[in-house]
Structures are given as structure tokens and as C-alpha cells.
Specification:
alpha+beta; three-stranded antiparallel beta sheet; 48% helix
């Protein structure tokens, strides 16, 4: 603390020497211009940071054998970064990517459609060192409630489910709606877990953006079993899990 005070005092002395003899209005003008320039530089750095994050996503898709998907994602890079930056500037100007992630907030997540590689192929990407994710669900039984796009797209201002820990999926649905957000489909939830590899080690998730054709109260859920294998299964929207504090419902604000 003492060291910072000494540094600050030193900077004040330098500024005093620079401003000596200038009119107050000129000093105010110079200070404001300096502040504006510093802020602009900060946001330029943040834009570059988002660009690097986007490149990491591409590497992830390439590593799991999805070169075509990685190439499609690259085409959306410029547009996606602009949207993520706008959200960052408007809603979280004092946060870093790291501080946001610690709260379960992510400015954007790329989504891969099951029509591109099948539901089973998509689940198999959810893997740890020894096992791959799996499901026995028939994809034809699934209905998506949320607006889904053809091909790869991005979900923005994503909350990974921490805000609804301890709530049933039905309770979470009302919490999410009241906050102006939408629950994720199973494709979006799986894509989130592929990119954010630590989510399922923190909590299991409900996918309230999708349900079962014949049983409207059946939604999809993703959890890890005792062998740490990710499983996609059906779950009643009102079910109270034995460890309910380990279940959350992710959401987003926008899809493009």
C-alpha cells in the first residue's frame, strides 16, 4: 500500500509540472482527453482478448476432429466479437473475462447443431481423460422450445446455471424468465459443456429449452455419473434431486 502511494505521489508531481501555468479549462480538457484515450485503449485490448478467446474455441473444435465446424466458426468471428464487446461494455464494464467466469457468466458460446454431427456424436465430445459422454435418447423425441438457427451460431451473455443452484427446473424457468433470459436447449447446453470443461465438475444442468414430445414435463438433463462420464437423460421438470444444490439451469440473453 505504501509503495502504491509513493508511485501515485510521484505521478501527481509530474502532472503538476506539466500543467503548471495552464488555464483550468485547458487542464480539464487535457485530463478528459487523456481519460478518453485510456478508456479507448482498454476496450481495444479487450477486443483483442475476445479475438484470442475465439481462436481458442477454434482450436478446441479442431482438436476433437471438427475442422469444418472450426472453419464455419471463423466466418462468424468479427460479428460475434462485436456483439460480445457490446455486452461487455454495456453490462459488465468493470469486469474481466476471468472475474465473469468466476461468477458463471460468459459473453458468448458457439453452438453446434446435432443436425451437423448427430446427438450421439455431439455427446461423445463431452469427454474426460478416459470416458466419452453418451446418451440413449432418441433424437426424434426431442422438441426445442427456443429459437434455433441452421448451422453454427452463438449464444450470448450465457449464465452457466450457478444462479439457479438448488432450484427445480420449473422454479428455475420462472427465475430465468423474470430476468429477461431464456433457458438453453440440449444442443446449446452440450456445446457449453464442451467449451467450458469445468462446468460439469461444478454442477449438473437442466436443459429447459428442450422437452419430450409425448411427455411435456420431461426435460433433458446432463450430469456426470460415478465414473465422471457425462450422461444426457430425461428428467421431470418438477423433480427435486437428492443433491439439489448440485443442479443448475443455464440460460442466455440472445442467439445469433
Amino acid at each position: 500500500m505504501a509503495k502504491k502511494k509513493v508511485e501515485l505521489d510521484s505521478r501527481i508531481l509530474k502532472l503538476t509540472a506539466i500543467f503548471r501555468g495552464l488555464e483550468p479549462a485547458v487542464i480539464d480538457f487535457l485530463v478528459e482527453r487523456s481519460r478518453t484515450s485510456a478508456i479507448a485503449e482498454t476496450w481495444e485490448e479487450r477486443e483483442k482478448e475476445l479475438g484470442k478467446l475465439f481462436d481458442v474455441w477454434r482450436v478446441i473444435w479442431k482438436q476433437i476432429g471438427c475442422q469444418a465446424i472450426a472453419d464455419s466458426l471463423y466466418k462468424k468471428k468479427s460479428e460475434a466479437i462485436k456483439r460480445m464487446l457490446r455486452i461487455w461494455r454495456k453490462k459488465y464494464p468493470n469486469e474481466t473475462l476471468k472475474s465473469l467466469a468466476s461468477k458463471g457468466i460468459h459473453l458468448g458460446i458457439p453452438v453446434i447443431r446435432k443436425s451437423q454431427m448427430g446427438l450421439y456424436g455431439l455427446m461423445s465430445m463431452l469427454q474426460n481423460v478416459e470416458t466419452r459422454g453418451y446418451t440413449q435418447i432418441d433424437p426424434d423425441e426431442i422438441i426445442d422450445h427456443v429459437g434455433i438457427f441452421q448451422g453454427i451460431y452463438v449464444i450470448y451473455d450465457v449464465e452457466d446455471g450457478r444462479c439457479t443452484l438448488g432450484h427445480t427446473a420449473d422454479q428455475a424457468k420462472h427465475i430465468i424468465k423474470a430476468s429477461g433470459r431464456q433457458g438453453l436447449s440440449e444442443e446449446e447446453s452440450i456445446s457449453m459443456c464442451i467449451i467450458l470443461t469445468d462446468v460439469l465438475t461444478h454442477h449438473n444442468i437442466h436443459c429447459i429449452g428442450s422437452c419430450r414430445k409425448v411427455v411435456i414435463n420431461d426435460i433433458l438433463a446432463i450430469f456426470c455419473d460415478e465414473d465422471k462420464q457425462a450422461i444426457l437423460c430425461w428428467s421431470d421438470i418438477n423433480q427435486e434431486h437428492a443433491q439439489k444444490e448440485k443442479w443448475g439451469t443455464p440460460s442466455c440473453v440472445m442467439r445469433k
